[in-house]
Automatic annotation (TrEMBL):
Organism: Poseidonibacter ostreae
Keyword Transmembrane: no
Protein name: Deoxyribodipyrimidine photo-lyase
Pfam families the record matches: DNA_photolyase (PF00875), FAD_binding_7 (PF03441)
InterPro entries given in the database record: Crypto/Photolyase_FAD-like_sf, Crypto/Photolyase_N_sf, Cryptochr/Photolyase_FAD-bd, Cryptochrome/DNA_photolyase_1, DNA_photolyase_1_CS_C, DNA_photolyase_N, Rossmann-like_a/b/a_fold
Amino acid sequence: MRQVLWFRRDLRVEDSALLANASKNVLPIFIFDKNILKKLDKNDKRVTFIYKSVLELKKKLQGLNLDLAIFFDEPKNVFTNLKKDGFDEVLCSVDFDSYAKNRDEEIESILPIKRFIDSFILNPNSHLKKDNTPYKVFTPFYKSLNIITQSYNIEEYSFNKNLEKIEFDYSFIPTLEQMGFESQELPEFLSKDAIELLEEFRAKVNKYQEERDFFYIDASSKISVHLRFGLISPKQVFNYFKSFGSADCEFFIREIFWREFYNYILFHFPHSEFDNLNKLEIKWNENEEDFIKWCEGKTGVPIIDAAMIHLNNTGLMHNRLRMVVASFLTKNLFVDWKKGEEYFAKKLLDYEASSNVGSWQWSSSTGADAAPYFRVFNPYTQSQKFDKDGIFIKSVFKEFENIEPKLFHIENALQSNLFVEYPKAIVDIKLSRQRAIDKFKEAKNEQF
């Protein structure tokens, strides 16, 4: 049996389903997928991060007397050639977004595939309600997992020490430039491995629940990018914090299962990747200028603009800010959530289809366990509550250094300052909130 171990978003050797379930003669591979890469900007920071991570995976596999064959091609071409080379089957971690499913079906027509749940803890098909239908609300979903969430350890995969490297040309390593990308400077935290980040976070996890909503406080674990690309598994993260037996860790562990929940929703409701999960027919605002101003951080609302400019510059956005800017786009500007989701997909370093789609549908009141349609974040109230002194806003707008912070939290107050040029808000918060509520009422009435 000659097996291909297809690493994708599981770039690690610890707790690896592939290295645990492979038989003997193996060819570990990674494909820089042209179908994906051609849609990305040449300065996409994620490609630099993945590139470095793939090279690190190659070193770790070599330390296990294996290696990693690297390709820059479309997957179907790679596997057509591997079939000619006499390979029998492919082992891979499963993904549930539309591109991944279509890609794997295409490869399965070339070589048999064995799929494993490796990027998440749960098998979405194994946790249903008593009537065998999927949960749509997080709290009962989470409570149903007590046997898992209350355990102190989830068994991790063990490396099969009997694996042998198949003779192959492992020498090819394309450069970023050859693939059409430019090497990017990454945020400092991405130079650290996942365990280092967890150890740093452990020192502040007791304040996580209290401080996580404040835009200017460094309260997060910074682990989302590593989780997204599988440099650490969610089981490893779970076991790390459970090992301390601390109640302070429980709130953070619960957050891990929001990620599981959104993956679960995408699995059971695949149409939600592209359409309203609740199937509401909504007549969205199609004014492209409004959307572009949101993207560029030119809305005239300080916290919205600061968040979007920071995202565009760094690929990062605080979790509560994601909710605030999403609410502003979908409720105040009444722009289709799919446009915001697509923009985040292009910009976020930790972009993950299931979580991003789920979060956007939550904000727009169209998805699972969604915010009620009449819940509309007031961006001025949010900045007053979570950035009272304008620390985050001023970190983005250096020219606002001497501005009285209270002006950030009052609609159009910056226009009264003679020393700054800042546009008037493109929408009235109160009027636009009422418009959104009226339009949702109209859509719901038409549905029934």
